[in-house]
Amino acid sequence: xxxxxxxxxxxxxxxxxxxxxxxxxxxxxxxxxxxxxxxxxxxxxxxxxxxxxxxxxxxxxxxxxxxxxxxxxxxxxxxxxxxxxxxxxxxxxxxxxxxxxxxxxxxxxxxxxxxxxxxxxxxxxxxxxxxxxxxxxxxxxxxxxxxxxxxxxxxxxxxxxxxxxxxxxxxxxxxxxxxxxxxxxxxxxxxxxxxxxxxxxxxxxxxxxxxxxxxxxxxxxxxxxxxxxxxxxxxxxxxxxxxxxxxxxxxxxxxxxxxxxxxxxxxxxxxxxxxxxxxxxxxxxxxxxxxxxxxxxxxxxxxxxxxxxxxxxxxxxxxxxxxxxxxxxxxxxxxxxxxxxxxxxxxxxxxxxxxxxxxxxxxxxxxxxxxxxxxxxxxxxxxxxxxxxxxxxxxxxxxxxxxxxxxxxxxxxxxxxxxxxxxxxxxxxxxxxxxxxxxxxxxxxxxxxxxxxxxxxxxxxxxxxxxxxxxxxxxxxxxxxxxxxxxxxxxxxxxxxxxxxxxxxxxxxxxxxxxxxxxxxxxxxxxxxxxxxxxxxxxxxxxxxxxxxxxxxxxxxxxxxxxxxxxxxxxxxxxxxxxxxxxxxxxxxxxxxxxxxxxxxxxxxxxxxxxxxx
Length: 614
Fold this sequence. Notes:
By secondary structure, the chain is an alpha/beta fold. Helices cover 37% and strands 21% of the residues.
């Protein structure tokens, strides 16, 4: 994408004001140029041909279709319409749709192979009745889910759909209920992934049944997605829907979609990598090998590169991303040389708010693990590299895969040598994403690794109204009750409940020696303690020093198991974190869910008892 595509510049001929008007006055009379925001990336996105995309995808997986000739025998509903001087029945409509397509219905299902990984596929074809849902499509999805459950295979739904077929009325409508129930039954009885892929227009029935209950929701670039289509919304609101407002890209930013892929080849690579990572981690007696990459760490490295890509939404997979600008960021700790403890803590606090040279979740995910399948995208808007506030990925060490979830800052390139950090403040949608990733990890029997660096949850009234408290509580509950090993890594700030949502204590907690943890953001804490909206730096400093927020403090309290040195070589720090993550995993491996929860409960309860007697 290019800047020109999003330009809002106007020619003077666009606003004919008549002759003799002073140019300055004319300029004031013109409508103001709308501010460019990241939303402008929706405009001018590539178009997607769902028929061509589906042909390419289904050909690649070599679908072995089942019940391919299933179709409606009787005219199930009496809906008719007048076309010219003729009356068109539902049967007439079906026969015409069949004559235009190689299919006898909108849905197909069967088994296939994707990069060596076998799965059950359910596909909706736009070239037959616009992929609409009816009794046959609902029945095929139910049978696809049952087949995947019986054969212990992943379930992948893919395609485009205009919604429930009006000609079948309530008989078509109840297929939403059947499909949602079938997907839920599959998830309850299987430890295999269920992934939904949107490939074109996806409206109505599919968007509110089988799609959102998937473990991961993906989309091909150029897709549109929503429950009510733009015409329905316009009819109700009385104004047209803004261009791109229901695009996959808009839904990605709103976290209704988890991953956006550029094309079918990337989709195939992503699915194959995801299925492979989950499958191999479910094997028994997994051995974590020695790390050979450690011997290749540059002992003289003192920083890391931050890459900025092309304008628009990046490819999901790292090896398909194209950097157009790279800024080397040196790891220079702000607390080095500070003799006074209060000064050291204050320097760390300031560094957390804007220091781009600190390690982030994405860097650790890539450098401390052998491979990773990212479950997120990055948007490049002018100089801003915009990440979701919380990211996740399926990362592997040897044959052991982990679900890694972490707070992630965004970055802005202010020059060729300086990058500013935009600290993450997760909102309700981010915590809901966290909960869904934790639930997927539980189904797939994956251990969890959390990485925390946030001053706190998004403190806005809009976030409160969207259910911030409930979303945080659900994330905390899901993380603390995970039945497999859990490792928490505090990489920067652990701020308030928003930080706790990605830092369950009690299993194995690692903390960088430069990190801090506090019940609320220090400035807010000082404002409460000193009853002032603008606390002084001295008041904030004293608050930090006396609240016992450092890694050494939390280690002494028994809340942190391992403190890792945050050295000037970020690759060495990542290697040390890797060792601590393996140590935490091996300490928990083989324990039952009850033992794991009891271990955490005992550690936290003992600490409370000790504190109570002081």
